[in-house]
Amino acid sequence: MARGDAPRDSYHLVGISFFILGLGTLLPWNFFITAIPYFQARLAGDSNSTARTLSTNRTGPEDAFNFNNWVTLLSQLPLLLFTLLNSFLYQCIPETVRILGSLLAILLLFALTAALVKVDMSPGPFFSITMASVCFINSFSAVLQGSLFGQLGTMPSTYSTLFLSGQGLAGIFAALAMLLSLASGVDAQTSALGYFITPCVGILMSIVCYLSLPHLKFARYYLAKKQSQAQAQELETKAELLHSDEKNGIPNSPQRVALTLDLDLEKEPEPEPDEPQEPGKPSVFTVFQKIWLTALCLVLVFTVTLSVFPAITAMVTSSTSPGKWSQFFNPICCFLLFNIMDCLGRSLTSYFLWPDEDSRLLPLLVCLRFLFVPLFMLCHVPQRSRLPILFPQDAYFITFMLLFAISNGYLVSLTMCLAPRQVLPHEREVAGALMTFFLALGLSCGASLSFLFKALL
């Protein structure tokens, strides 16, 4: 919460800046997966400009490179790795270098992706360059996201919400860019080039927003507090102890504060009388024991989601005859619908949290989502050799996607909200870090399983 002497966020410029920064962190991932038909067409070996189309080929180019699966896996493994490394990087590399350097690197790599639209290249080298770009872009995105969350930790919670809202809209933004490119009426190559230039503009806007923060009084006030955050936390803890003693009729003496701290931190060595008392650091293992079930639920939610989206869902085609609807079916019913309903699901936790942290219904609801794996695999995917098509009509896929997306958004947001409520106030930061790690772990597990499920088709 802002203090009484805190400046105001004039014209909500800081809020808008963090919203755009949130949008920029997930633009790369969303623009790559939404353009899967373009990449599959390029990898099919056609060197003509028609191979650069963003729409799905109704005959379906053979995905010999398993592009859907590799782009998902090589997006999430760097996220998992750099989520772990970021705790060490922040001590070695200044925050400004991490954030600005990551944004510039992402911009350059996306510019390379856009330039490759105009370059004729055989499938093998094109696949290698694209996968390397995906890996590096998502590595920088992980560093960027972790660093920005660190900055948001010193600001009012409203700004974290705005940042997350920007991330939620990144997928919608990518799907709309795809639809506009398809509806533009220009040739396929120009359409694809315009599509990949769009995130470059978004990253440029993010750079401008970040560079503007030091010039905004509101941002300067809160970011300056970051350096003294540990001291402020120590004073706050001591103040709570003094207040607690006062309520119980115990004198607020230094000796009493030291005794209370000693009781709270049973396993910590007794401090010397002349040394200043500091709050004990929460144990990671102790926090994990309290939130392990919620963390496991988060892993399973993302495991199910990434195992079929987009590796399987992007392969589903319309069962209707070729036409406009067939061309727009996958961008609308797969990517746009998923991101809209996912965003809606995340927003529902602002109104209610059900089931609560003590309920055993949460693991049951999470496990029920495994039903979506066979349901999507039995939809209208022409490229299959083992399983039959049991749900050929478009309505089945749309219904499954609605439930799949809204349950993903709601359960992800629910688990992230419940975890801090299961620990003590001074343990919440550790709980948040652990949940971020398990989020990345779930994404990586799902991306790995997508190879198996695609092979079973």
TrEMBL record:
The keyword Flavoprotein does not apply. The chain crosses the membrane at residues 12-39, 70-90, 97-117, 129-150, 162-186, 192-213, 291-316, 328-349, 361-383, 395-418, 430-453. It is found in: Apical cell membrane; Basolateral cell membrane. GO terms for biological process: adenosine transport; hypoxanthine transport; inosine transport; thymine transport. InterPro entries: ENT1/ENT2, Eqnu_transpt, MFS_trans_sf. It is a multi-pass membrane protein. GO terms for cellular component: apical plasma membrane; basolateral plasma membrane. Keywords: Cell membrane, Glycoprotein, Membrane, Phosphoprotein, Transmembrane, Transmembrane helix, Transport. It holds the Pfam family Nucleoside_tran. It comes from the Eukaryota. It catalyses: thymine(out) = thymine(in); uracil(in) = uracil(out); guanine(out) = guanine(in); adenine(out) = adenine(in). GO terms for molecular function: adenine transmembrane transporter activity; cytidine transmembrane transporter activity; guanine transmembrane transporter activity; neurotransmitter transmembrane transporter activity; purine nucleoside transmembrane transporter activity; uracil transmembrane transporter activity; uridine transmembrane transporter activity. The keyword Oxidoreductase does not apply. PANTHER family: EQUILIBRATIVE NUCLEOSIDE TRANSPORTER (PTHR10332), EQUILIBRATIVE NUCLEOSIDE TRANSPORTER 2 (PTHR10332:SF8). Belongs to the SLC29A/ENT transporter (TC 2.A.57) family. Bidirectional uniporter involved in the facilitative transport of nucleosides and nucleobases, and contributes to maintaining their cellular homeostasis. Functions as a Na(+)-independent, passive transporter. Involved in the transport of nucleosides such as inosine, adenosine, uridine, thymidine, cytidine and guanosine. Also able to transport purine nucleobases (hypoxanthine, adenine, guanine) and pyrimidine nucleobases (thymine, uracil). Involved in nucleoside transport at basolateral membrane of kidney cells, allowing liver absorption of nucleoside metabolites. This is Equilibrative nucleoside transporter 2.
